[in-house]
Amino acid sequence: MDELVREWTAQLLDPGNAAALVVGAVALVLVLNRSTWPLLRNVVTIAHEGGHAVVALLSGRKLNGIRLHSDTSGLTVSTGRSSGPGMVLTLLAGYPAVSLLGLGGAWLVAADLAQVMLWVAIGLLVVMLLAIRNAYGVLSVLVTGGVLVAVSWLATPAWQALCCALFSWFLLFGGLRPIGELRRKRSRGRAPDSDADQLARLTGVPAAMWLLCWYLIGVVALLLGARWLLLMPQV
C-alpha cells in the first residue's frame, strides 16, 4: 500500500499531469456547483437509464422504452418476470453504469483513443435514441450527442483528448453524487420506490446495503479512473 501511495504521489507531482489534474478539478466543480449540476445531471441520467436498458436486454427482458424528464429523473420500462435474476440485475445496473462508463472513458483516454471514445459514445446515444419515448428525452440525447459530434469533427486531437478526459472525470464524480442524493431522500421518506428499495423488496437485502455497494463501486472506479487519467498522453 505504501508503495502504491508513493507511486500515485509521484504521478501527482509530475508536471506532465497538470492538464489531467486541472480538467479533473473542473469536472469536480461542475458536479458540486449548484448552478451547473441541475443541467449537467441530465447526462448522468442518460447513462443511468442506459445502464438499466442494456442490462434488461442482456438478461432477456423486453425493453419497452426510456423516458427522461426535465427534473433529471428517468424511467426505463421493460417487461419480463417481476422477480428473479433478470429483474435484480436490471435494477442494480443504473447507478454503477455511470461510474463504469467514466472508467471506460478514462481507459480509452489513457490509451490515446479519444476519437474512439467519442464515436463509441455517439453510437450508444444513437441506439438509445431509438428507445426514447418522450420529447424531453429526445432533446436531451440529441443535445448530448451534438456536443460529442462537434468535438469529434471540430476539435484538434489535443482538444479531443482534453474534452474526453473532462467527460470521463465528470462521469466518475457524477456517478457518486446521485447516490448521496438518494440516501438523503430516503432518510426523509421521499423515495419509497427507488432502485435500492425495489431491490430490497426483491432480495431481502436492506436498501442501505445496495447504496453502500453502489458507493463502493463508484469510489473504486474513481480511484482507478483517476490513475489512468493521470497517465493520459501529454497535450
From TrEMBL:
Q: Does the keyword Transmembrane helix apply?
A: yes
Which key words tag this protein in UniProt? Membrane, Transmembrane, Transmembrane helix
Segments spanning the bilayer are 12-32, 88-110, 116-132, 137-153, 159-180, 208-230
Q: Which domain of life is it from?
A: Bacteria
Keyword DNA repair part of the UniProt annotation: no
Record's signal peptide: none
Which InterPro entries is this protein grouped with? Peptidase_M50B-like (IPR049500)
Any Pfam family hit: Peptidase_M50B
Q: What is this protein called?
A: M50 family metallopeptidase
Source organism: Saccharopolyspora thermophila
**What lineage is on file?**
Bacteria, Bacillati, Actinomycetota, Actinomycetes, Pseudonocardiales
